[in-house]
């Protein structure tokens, strides 16, 4: 640590870390970015207040969090700190997959999602039981928009029961809620 920071009280350093986390979350929120360059202080301030108010709705239910773009971004940032963002990425990939209408695209997307998230030893393997993994593997033979439903539901439940409560207790969320 540099000499200048060492002279500061620990509480100031902790507060600065909290602010850095909150700002990091906001800067990664697509709707908070200005189309060209960085937002002005005035623009960021008004959007910060809107996002902070919205943050209060996130604690009402996990569904409220998932409906909010900035909520998903904040939750994703939190999951990265816990090294479990693959759960949300899988859930989002499944949501996008369900919107696919082309049969050929459906099959190729299904295989890509399965290889990335579901199969054993996948690069971003989600935590699902063997039975669900096998059901999903069998569903790929006749890929429909529902072939990941069971795996997606298990992953969602895991996030809702495990990660979501920790997110609501996290310092970054608590600071956002206080700002509202």
Summarize the structure.
By secondary structure, this protein is mainly α. Helices cover 72% and strands 0% of the residues. It has one domain (46-178): Orthogonal Bundle (Regulator of G-protein Signalling 4, domain 2).
C-alpha geometry: elongated
Number of helices: 10
Which CATH first-tier class would you pick? Mainly Alpha
- How would you sum up the major sheet? none
Q: If you average the pLDDT, what whole number results?
A: 81
Number of domains: 1
Helix content: over 70%
CATH architecture: Orthogonal Bundle
Beta-strand segment tally: 0
Structural class: mainly alpha
Question: Which regions have little confidence, pLDDT < 50, spanning 5+ residues?
Answer: 25-48
Distance between the termini: 33 Å
CATH topology: Regulator of G-protein Signalling 4, domain 2
Beta-sheet strand percentage? under 5%
**H-E string:** HHHHHHHHHH
The CATH superfamily appears as Regulator of G-protein Signalling 4, domain 2
Q: Rg, please? A: 19 Å
Explain what you see.
This protein has 180 residues and is mainly α. The protein has one domain (46-178): Regulator of G-protein Signalling 4, domain 2 (Orthogonal Bundle), CATH 1.10.167. The protein is 72% helix and 0% strand. Helix 3 crosses helix 10 (171-179). Residues 25-48 have low confidence and may be disordered.
């Amino acid at each position: 640590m540099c000499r200048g920071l060492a002279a500061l009280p620990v509480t100031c350093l902790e507060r600065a870390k909290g602010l850095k986390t909150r700002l990091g979350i906001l800067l990664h929120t697509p709707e908070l970015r200005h189309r060209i360059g960085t937002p002005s202080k005035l623009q960021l301030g008004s959007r910060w207040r809107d996002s902070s108010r919205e943050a209060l709705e996130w604690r009402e239910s996990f569904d409220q969090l998932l409906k909010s773009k900035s909520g998903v971004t904040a939750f994703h940032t939190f999951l990265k700190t816990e090294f479990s963002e693959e759960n949300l990425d899988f859930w989002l990939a499944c949501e996008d997959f369900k919107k696919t209408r082309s049969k050929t695209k459906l099959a190729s997307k299904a295989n890509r999602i399965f290889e990335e998230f579901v199969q054993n030893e996948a690069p971003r393997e989600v935590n699902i039981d063997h039975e669900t993994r096998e059901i999903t593997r069998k569903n790929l033979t006749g890929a429909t928009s529902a072939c990941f439903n069971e795996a997606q539901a298990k992953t969602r439940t895991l996030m809702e029961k495990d990660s979501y409560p920790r997110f609501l207790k996290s310092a970054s969320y608590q600071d956002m809620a206080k700002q509202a």
